[in-house]
Design goal:
With about 260 residues, this protein is an alpha/beta fold. It contains ten helices and seven strands. A seven-stranded parallel beta sheet has the order 3-2-1-4-5-6-7, with helices on both faces. This is Short-chain dehydrogenase/reductase SDR.
Length: about 260
């Protein structure tokens, strides 16, 4: 019997690959995206997040087997803070009661190898405080200082820390809901296709994210890993950031971090 699963970012990239994989397995997927989805919503705004949660709850009848928050952006602006952190956390928290009503609920999101890279502590701290406007203001300050490349890793690092903080609470672990993340290396998605077409940028990416095992990944690789995290087989893994990155994290952080 198929399960009912909400997937954000379902119109492209990893989210699209995952939605297709789940549907092939017989699951009902409630896609969430800016277009071409069962729920059309902008997770970069409070209004869009509230609309997304409300429509998913209507479509699933208040009971949801799994949620995978894949939607994300990589601009060197403050937008990653709004979408990658607040969009993800609001969606997961908003749908958590529906997960708690399911027999074997699961939840997952997409972190990033970039979360191990230089970031801005003020952005991360404001995110973890749940203060969106302060986080955005801190991100805009970073951008104005010519360090916009820090907003994306800061949003992903904050997301990973939030996940590890809440996953063991009564609301998540206590309700029987495993909450984990896949942290990809470089993935061939529409989000980075323009960069992959630039030889100079490819060189920079390969130096920043070395992937000796397999090189750059296709979205389906990440989708398969996410599918396992939200499968009924995952009964005891929670709070884990699983690096599907061709070995990049092991190289960048060394053997002492495990």
């Amino acid at each position: 019997m198929g399960r009912t699963i909400a997937v954000s970012g379902s119109a492209s990239g990893i989210g699209r690959a995952l939605a297709g994989l789940l549907r092939e397995r017989g699951d009902e997927v409630i896609g969430i995206d800016l277009h071409e989805a069962e729920v059309v919503a902008d997770l970069g705004t409070p209004e869009g997040r509230a609309h997304a949660v409300r429509r998913v709850l209507e479509l699933c009848g208040g009971v949801l087997d799994a949620v995978v928050a894949c939607a994300g952006v990589s601009q060197f602006t403050s937008l990653p803070v709004r979408v990658n952190f607040f969009g993800v956390t609001a969606l997961l928290e908003g749908l958590r009661p529906a997960l708690a009503r399911a027999e074997r609920p699961r939840a997952a999101t997409v972190a990033s190898i970039s979360g191990t890279q230089p970031l801005d502590e003020a952005v991360v701290a404001a995110c973890l405080d749940g203060d969106e406007e302060a986080a955005v203001a801190a991100a805009e300050k970073v951008v104005a200082a010519g360090q916009g490349n820090k907003t994306y890793p800061s949003s992903k690092a904050a997301l990973a820390q939030w996940l590890r903080r809440v996953c063991i609470t009564p609301e998540w672990a206590g309700a029987g809901i495993p909450l984990n993340a896949i942290a990809p290396g470089v993935v061939r998605t529409p989000m980075i296709e323009p960069l992959l077409a630039d030889a100079a940028m490819v060189k920079i990416m390969n130096e920043a994210v070395p992937m000796p095992l397999g090189g750059h990944a296709d979205p389906e690789v990440i989708a398969e890993a996410l599918a396992w995290l939200i499968s009924p087989a995952n009964t005891h893994m929670t709070g884990q950031i699983i690096y599907v990155d061709g070995g990049a994290e092991a190289i960048l952080r060394g053997p002492e971090v495990f």
